[in-house]
Structure formats: C-alpha cells, structure tokens
Design brief:
By secondary structure, the protein is mainly β. It is built from no helices and 18 strands.
C-alpha cells in the first residue's frame, strides 16, 4: 500500500481507512487476511465574509468564517442594519477554494428596500426599491410566487429619514395528494407533501422519497 499512488482529483484528498482499533496502519502483516479501504474525501476550504460600511474602512459587523467542503453549497444571509442596505443580501455559491467576500452597506435615506427570499433555499427571488418623504405612509403588496406563501402579504409603515429595509420570506406550500385505487385492492390514502418535493407510493402506505 505504501507504494500505491492513487490518482489525484481536484478538490479531494485520498485517505486510507484501516479497521484497526486505533485506525492506524498495521506495522506488520498478521497471519490472516486484512482489509483496508481507500476513499476520496472532499477538501475543506475557508469561507470568510466581511461586512463594511460603504467607505470600505470601518466594519459594520464582525466577520463570519465557516469551513465548507469542496463542492458543497453555502448560503449566508447578510445581517440587517437599520438605515443601511447590504449590496449582497445573501452570499451563496458552491465551494471550490478558499474564498473571502466583502459585503458593503450603504445609507438608505428615505428609501424603502424590500428583499424577497425563498426560505427553503435562501435565494433572493425579487427586490423592491422606492423613495418616500419622511413620515409618508407606504404600502407595498408582496408579489406572488408559485407554490409559496409569504410571511407578509403587504409591507406597510411610515417612512423615516434613515430609510427602511424589510426582508419578506416565502415558505413552500404544503399540499395533500390523494391516491385512488379506482376499483383495485390497494389502500386509498392521503399524503401531505411539500411543494416541489418528490413523493411516492410504496404499496400500502405513502411516503416521501
């Protein structure tokens, strides 16, 4: 095994897994067959997110650091700051190497900003921006998203001089699927499923796949 050179794959390390008590390699061959398994393990990379005011010199919030495996998705919602709007509402992507992202916050004087986010994927699906006079009332109807329900159907309030930023979240709807045997012998039952999820029927019971 020491003379075996496994093929290199981008983003992965090769590791041997010994079935010894301490997990370490055998020092000498025992008088019996012995198995060892080799596998490719995703490398771990560092994701760092910095939060700065628009000038880029003064931090708004402490940096966030996470370790993410190669090929894995990441999605981090930028924290909210009264009177400011982040230029990236959600930092997301697929990890391929160490990554550092700077998020900048700009003042939102008399500005209403609404960010619409899918709660199940943390994806920004829509935005709204408009300017109002101080103390002016505003009311914005949340746009529809097929298969989802918003936690706020209308965003309303009174504008402040520093501006207002609101996050509206869309949760996937739950539906009931009814299976009808149409004269057959299988049981007829109902299954509650989440929008856009796969569901199945296993004979006498119904279950999500």
């Amino acid at each position: 095994i020491q003379n075996y050179n496994p093929k290199n794959y981008e983003g992965y390390d090769f590791e041997w897994h010994w079935s010894t008590e301490d997990g370490k390699a055998l020092e000498s061959m025992p008088a019996e067959d012995w198995w060892v398994i080799g596998s490719y393990v995703p490398k771990k990379y560092k994701l760092k997110i910095n939060y700065f005011y628009e000038s880029g010199s003064e931090p708004v919030f402490p940096s966030v650091e996470q370790t993410v495996a190669y090929g894995s998705s990441y999605s981090i919602e930028s924290p909210q700051k009264d009177g400011y709007l982040a230029n990236i509402a959600v930092v997301s992507g697929v990890m391929e190497d160490d990554l550092e992202v700077d998020v900048y916050y700009k003042p939102t004087e008399n500005q209403l900003n609404i960010i619409y986010i899918r709660k199940d994927t943390n994806e920004v699906v829509n935005t709204f921006t408009s300017t109002y006079a101080t103390n002016e009332e505003f009311s914005v109807t949340t746009p529809e998203l097929t298969g989802y329900s918003a936690n706020e159907s209308v965003v309303s309030g009174i504008m402040t001089s520093s501006g207002i930023t609101k996050y509206v979240y869309f949760e996937p709807n739950h539906y009931v699927v009814t299976f009808d045997a149409v004269g057959g012998n299988c049981n007829v039952s109902e299954k509650e499923v989440v929008y856009n999820n796969v569901y199945g029927y296993n004979g006498s019971a119904y279950e999500a796949l």
